[in-house]
Amino acid sequence: MPELVSQEIQNFIEEKSLQEGDKLPSVEAMTQMFGVGRSSLREALRYLEAIDVITVANGKGIFVRDVGTYRFAGKIKIEKEKRFLLSILDVRRALEGKAVELAAKRITPAQISELTECLREYARLKEAGKQTSQIDLAFHRGVMRAAANPILSSVLESISSLYERFFNEPLGEQKLFDETYEFHHTMFAAIADHDSTRALAEFDKLMNCIEEIIKSY
Predict the structure, then answer these.
(1) What is the pLDDT of residues 54-84, one digit of tens each?
(2) CA 188 to centroid of chain Cα atoms
(3) What is the DSSP letter of 23?
(4) For residue 60, which phi and psi values (nearest 5 degrees)?
(5) Which CATH number is associated with domain 88-215?
(6) Radius of gyration of the chain from Cα atoms?
């Protein structure tokens, strides 16, 4: 939880275009903003202070210290970010893996047609040398819809900002999508055949590929 909160604070700094010396909301305000307890928030703040993102001045408030920190400036910071991304990947494996399993059992002919067209567009963009991150995201969202489980969809949506990190910087480079491209086709073929075991096996290959790319940074 503290790692997730620390990322939300960094996202807030970026979204508000805060600069060095700018003041962050109070601890009380941030517990309400992020829906977390004081202990988790304080641990997140200690982490951000340790990597020089913020500085906490007793009696004065919390201030931005270095807006460039989360642009991977330094080996230690890179390692921390890698661990964070790998933690998100563990959650993605569990949630999306279940969606893949359910999709293989529940996908409709209309959804098969929709995902077939999505992969055609993926191939067209790839062959044209264009960015494929967003069509990749659309494919995965289509699989989630095919799972036909509103609770699972709600949980995935609640962490959408973290989930979408795999389709944006720093992971949104073309290398990621080129190296995982084939597994989208093999996984979809298994889903369309209603073979959940094979679909999960192909999904695991895709996740393993992403894990190796993260570790290689």
Answers:
(1) 899 988 999 998 766 554 344 445 566 778 8
(2) 21
(3) B
(4) -115, -40
(5) 1.20.120.530
(6) 20
| CATH fold for the domain made of 2-71 | Arc Repressor Mutant, subunit A (1.10.10)
Give the H/E segment covering residue 56: strand 54-57
CA of 128: how far to CAs of 123, 134, 176, 182, in Å? 9, 15, 17, 17
Q: Of 85, 9, 11, 17, which is closest to residue 54 (Cα–Cα)?
A: 9
Q: Which two tokens stand for residue 181?
A: 């491209």
Residue ranges of the alpha helices (H) in 51-173? 75-106, 109-127, 133-147, 150-158, 160-163
DSSP type of residue 74: S
State the Cα–Cα distance between residues 176 and 127, nearest whole angstrom: 16
Map tokens 């004081």 to a residue: 38
Please state the pTM of the whole predicted model: 0.64
First to last CA, the chain: 24
Angle between helix axes 196-215 and 75-106 (nearest 10 degrees) is 170
Q: CA-CA distance, 20 to 62, in Å (whole number)? A: 11
pLDDT per position as a tens digit, 95-126 = 999 999 999 999 999 999 999 999 999 999 99
| 23 backbone dihedrals φ, ψ, rounded to 5° | -95, 135
Element (H, E) at 29: helix 27-34
Domain chopping of the chain, boundaries: 2-71, 88-215
Question: To 10 degrees, the CA torsion angle through 129, 131, 134, 138?
Answer: 10
